[in-house]
């Protein structure tokens, strides 16, 4: 029996050694780039960015109602979404019907037919606030996929036009929508090169092949888990509390010295953390779709029922956009035409988390009341009952954000369906912000919980989170770096 265990141990050491030789570089890269990624996001244009860069609406220039503007498009179906914005210095309606978006100017009813090079240039110039520096921009017409637009999310927005300025700013404008869809600076690109790109293996030649990229990340993560688990097993098997090993004339719990000793000690301390990060990183690629639960299913259905689609444009004739804007303070940048609980409303946006609700019948409001939300939930969830509703005033286990981007307060609601569905709703917009069921609650802990260590107490008491995660990150990096040093010994043994 002892012989069998001895042979098994040697086999495990052999497997662990060669897995370390093969994968030590990407493993160390994950840890080191993860430290950068904690503080440097991958460049993107968020909804808040878009609204903050828009110009305020001028009610005096809005002459067409939503229905009149949409009639110019001669569509045979109602739009899925509609919003009034300022585009190229003019008030314009943006209608989305299916996958098609159309722009109709609200001052004279002109339909925007295509996005010319000069129009795209003006949009890009306005974004970077260079009214007198148009000529300094370098233009790359119909930019192909590059490092910053390689994601499949840009596919329906192509072709893109790229504008670059000497200070390093780069703006990508969609020739489909005429909107800025990506924006980078020298600093944001540098942060991504050392953070998100190596951490996600987001290299353009690889990322253009989405399936191959996904499979590579899954398999590398899986191999990291296997290598780590074998290392932990071997380490525990080798460790001797009774100090049976002799090293430099002294009894020792570990038979090794130098780098090998450090690798084993660090592996015993940080090995479980390294394995959990590799496993949770693999879950980021959705290898187990069941764990995604209601986030993409029931949550979307609930939001659709709460907010309503398609849009009944005729209902907004009772209070035209000019009148709705007149009821609000100056500075409104966007009016979204939507509905809540079957009733048409305008949702006015001024900047991030600055919104106002303008009902067709009634005065503007800062947010929906709890009773309004509860009544809407009960209506849309029938015949399933709403068993728990409460107001969330601070982040909690299933609703938290270390950057404080998720809105507070929020309304929590739980249903008594077979999946115990639960939702967090923003009372300022009526939108479902987060949703979970019995499966996705596992995903919250196995992916987000393990990978981001997103525990409410740590997020509320920063820099406690930073100190803990950095300590674990540097520990995992040290395990990987010692593995690299040992790999050189294996591959280049001394003669």
Features:
495 residues; alpha+beta; six-stranded antiparallel beta sheet; elongated
What does this structure look like?
By secondary structure, the chain is an alpha+beta fold. Helices cover 42% and strands 19% of the residues. The protein has 15 helices and 16 strands. A hairpin with a 5-residue loop joins β5 and β6 (170-174). α1 (2-37) crosses α8 and α9 (258-283) crosses α15. The longest helix has 36 residues, at 2-37.
| Helix percent band | 40-55%
Largest sheet: 6 strands, antiparallel
Give the number of helices.
15
Question: Which strand order do you get reading across the main beta sheet?
Answer: 3-2-1-10-11-12
Distance between the termini: 37 Å
Low-confidence stretches: none
| Gross morphology | elongated
Work out the number of β strands: 16
SSE topology:
Blueprint: H1 2-37, H2 47-53, H3 66-71, E1 81-87, E2 90-97, E3 100-105, H4 117-127, E4 138-143, E5 160-164, E6 170-174, E7 180-184, H5 186-194, H6 196-200, H7 204-207, H8 210-238, E8 245-247, E9 250-252, H9 258-283, H10 298-307, H11 321-326, E10 334-340, E11 343-351, E12 354-359, H12 370-381, E13 386-392, E14 410-415, E15 422-426, E16 431-436, H13 440-452, H14 456-460, H15 464-491
Antiparallel strand pairs: 1-2, 1-10, 2-3, 4-5, 5-6, 6-7, 8-9, 10-11, 11-12, 13-14, 14-15, 15-16
Helix pairs in contact: 1-8, 1-15, 8-9, 9-13, 9-15
């Amino acid at each position: 029996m002892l012989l069998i265990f001895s042979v098994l141990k040697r086999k495990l050491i052999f497997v662990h050694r060669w897995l370390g030789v093969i994968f030590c570089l990407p493993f160390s890269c994950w840890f080191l780039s993860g430290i950068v990624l904690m503080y440097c996001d991958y460049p993107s244009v968020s909804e808040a960015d878009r609204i903050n860069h828009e110009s305020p609406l001028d009610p005096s220039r809005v002459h067409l109602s939503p229905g009149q503007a949409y009639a110019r498009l001669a569509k045979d179906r109602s739009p899925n979404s509609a919003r009034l914005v300022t585009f190229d210095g003019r008030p314009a309606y943006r209608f989305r019907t299916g996958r098609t978006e159309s722009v109709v100017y609200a001052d004279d009813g002109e339909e925007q037919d295509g996005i010319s090079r000069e129009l795209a240039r003006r949009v890009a110039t306005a974004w970077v606030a260079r009214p007198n520096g148009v000529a300094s921009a370098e233009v790359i017409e119909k930019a192909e996929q590059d490092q910053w637009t390689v994601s499949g999310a840009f596919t329906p927005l192509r072709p893109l036009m790229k504008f670059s300025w000497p200070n390093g700013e780069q703006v990508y404008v969609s020739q489909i929508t005429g909107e800025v869809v990506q924006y980078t600076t020298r600093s944001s690109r540098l942060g991504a090169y050392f953070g998100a790109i190596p951490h996600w293996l987001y290299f353009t030649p690889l990322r253009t092949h989405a399936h191959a990229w996904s499979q590579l990340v899954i398999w590398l993560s899986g191999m990291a888990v296997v290598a780590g688990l074998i290392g932990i097993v071997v380490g525990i098997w080798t460790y001797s509390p009774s100090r049976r090993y002799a090293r430099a004339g002294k009894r020792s719990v570990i038979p090794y010295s130098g780098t090998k000793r450090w690798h084993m000690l660090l592996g015993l301390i940080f090995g479980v953390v390294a394995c959990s990060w590799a496993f949770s990183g693999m879950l980021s690629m959705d290898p187990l779709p069941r764990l995604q639960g209601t986030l993409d299913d029931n949550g979307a259905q609930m939001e659709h029922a709460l907010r309503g689609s398609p849009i009944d444009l005729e209902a907004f004739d009772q209070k035209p956009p000019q009148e709705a804007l007149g009821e609000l303070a100056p500075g409104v940048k966007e009016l979204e035409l939507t509905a809540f609980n079957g009733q048409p409303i305008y949702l006015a946006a001024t900047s991030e988390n600055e919104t106002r609700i303008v009902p067709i019948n009634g005065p503007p409001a800062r947010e929906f009341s709890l009773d309004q939300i509860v009544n809407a939930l009960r209506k849309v969830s029938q015949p399933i009952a709403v068993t728990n509703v409460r107001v969330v005033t601070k982040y909690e286990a299933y609703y938290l954000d270390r950057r404080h981007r998720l809105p507070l307060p929020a309304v929590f609601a739980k249903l008594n369906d077979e999946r115990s569905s639960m939702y967090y709703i923003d009372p300022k917009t009526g939108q479902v912000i987060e949703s979970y069921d019995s499966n996705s609650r596992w995903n919250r802990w196995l992916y987000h919980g393990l990978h981001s260590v997103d525990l409410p107490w740590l997020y509320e008491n920063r820099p406690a989170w930073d100190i803990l995660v950095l300590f674990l990150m540097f520990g995992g990096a040290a395990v990987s770096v010692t593995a690299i040093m040992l790999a050189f010994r294996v591959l280049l043994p001394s003669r």
